Amino acid sequence: MGKIINREEFIADLKAVKPGIAKYEILEQSDCIVFDAESKRVYTFNDEMACFIKLDLSITGAVVASVLLDLLGKLKDDEIEVFQDDVYFKIKSGRIESGVACEQVIRLPITVLEHPRKEDWQPLPENFNAAVMMAESCVSKSDADFSMSSIHVTSTHLESANLSQMCRFTIDLPIKSSFLVRHGNLESITKVGVTYCAETENWWHFKGEGGLRICCRKFNESYIEDFDAILEKAGKIGESNGSGQVGVNVLLPSQLIDDAKTAAMFSKDNLSGRDVLVVKFSGEKQCVILKGEGILGFFKSQTDCEYHGEDLSFAISPKLFLEMMRQYKTCTVLPKSIKVSGDQFVFLTSIETVEEK
């Protein structure tokens, strides 16, 4: 006799531990969800992320995550019965019975994790999700350069950069040392909801509701040495920066918020693999042109704008552009870059002269 559980709640619990699932089996059982009846937990681990959640089931073993989640998503009943035999993790749903292969010997090397003390846990600041979103928007998705494909975490800010953009979000974090976190890892944490964090030598730990625990590996490697110098060198309003051109403020039309939301529908699927919008300033036409383009189509808008310089353009992620519009509404056009800055956030992107057709 198995245990009757709510299917939707079960799916929600399993999705909460998805950040620790490897797309491919890089470690033994790293593409699996592990059930541990003794500790009444379910967990995942892919060497960079580990996730735990409380779940009281009389089942012990490792099940390939993608198969189990796909199966649960296809069932229709609100309540299902789950149990196991010597071979399968079994599910009964009305007239249907199914079994997913279950390895009863757990070989996932979860013991490498360190565990923080109870007194080490500290509340995360309310703007943590916003900081992560912005840092993820500028990080390089290529693993060719480790530092550029990572977010730099310090006690005072999160920052990231790729070959054309860089950003820094000021935030007070309860950590003792600075370190790097691979791109995508912090973003996946914000999607499941966490409220507390703690630090150990090699891991950054997070805690959420329902006994959810997530551990993110820290990389204690050096970051871009001249990050501060680049931000400072970018200049400010009224500074020529040695080029003879002076940085000027440009007010971005509020209509761009709705335009960006629509353009983002197409920018997700493109041949470059980068989800970006292209923003172009035309001094001749005194307008700003916004475009999102992908394999499914494109969206383009042209809006009047007080800009009198030479034609130029830059690429930016839709999320970052929308956040910039909501909070700041203006940008600074400098000789070689565009800069957006506020109380908490600095964003810098390189620009190029273009001919608008």
For this structure, the CATH topology of the largest domain is DNA Polymerase III, Chain A, domain 2
Q: What's the pLDDT, averaged over the residues?
A: 88
Estimate the global geometry from the Cα principal axes: globular
Radius of gyration from CA coordinates: 24 Å
Q: Describe the sheet with the most strands.
A: 12 strands, antiparallel
Any idea how many domains?
3
Structural class of the helix and strand makeup?
Answer: alpha+beta
Q: Any key phrases for this structure?
A:
single chain; 357 residues; alpha+beta; DNA Polymerase III, Chain A, domain 2; twelve-stranded antiparallel beta sheet
Describe this structure in words.
With 357 residues, the protein is of the alpha+beta class. The chain has three domains: 3-112, Roll (DNA Polymerase III, Chain A, domain 2), CATH 3.10.150; 118-217, DNA Polymerase III, Chain A, domain 2; 234-353, Roll (DNA Polymerase III, Chain A, domain 2), CATH 3.10.150.10. 19% of the residues lie in helices and 36% in strands. The chain is built from seven helices and 25 strands. The chain has helices spanning 7-16, 65-74, 128-138, 185-192, 227-233, 256-267, 318-327, and strands at residues 3-6, 32-36, 41-45, 49-54, 61-64, 79-84, 88-93, 96-103, 122-123, 150-153, 157-161, 165-170, 179-182, 196-199, 203-207, 213-217, 248-251, 277-282, 287-294, 297-304, 312-316, 330-333, 337-341, 345-350, 352-353. A twelve-stranded antiparallel β-sheet has the order 1-6-7-8-5-2-3-4-16-15-14-9. An eight-stranded antiparallel β-sheet has the order 13-10-11-12-24-23-22-17, with helices on one face. A hairpin with a 3-residue loop joins strand 23 (337-341) and strand 24. Helix 6 (256-267) runs antiparallel to helix 7. The longest helix is centred in the last third of the chain and has 12 residues, at 256-267. Residues 236-245 have low confidence and may be disordered.
